[in-house]
Amino acid sequence: MTHHFAPCNRPPSRVTQLFAGLTAGLILLLLGACDKVPPPTVAPAAPLPATARPRIALVMKTLTNPFFIEMEKGARRAEQEEQELDLLVRTAAQETSIEQQIGIVDQLIRDRVAAIVIAP
What we know:
By secondary structure, the chain is of the alpha/beta class.
């Protein structure tokens, strides 16, 4: 049996907004406690200045979906509350831009961000 899902044109509910914000905030908080040892296959980069805040990347398919828009808003609120990290939000042009999405993640790895959060 095949299921087809139609896009929802309703604005996100308060529950959806709260869930998206809490999820993004929790992910960012948990990632702050992660070990920051780079993977051995990544070429060494210049160290960040002592005053630099860790950069956390949030990668989403696109910002045309209301769920992802709310997720970014929640992540931005968490960034403002924490004030100890810099949030980088990256999206592809379309949800089906798979090669572009791969390129975004590859670039973030080369840029040696502290953590990458991917919302599939």
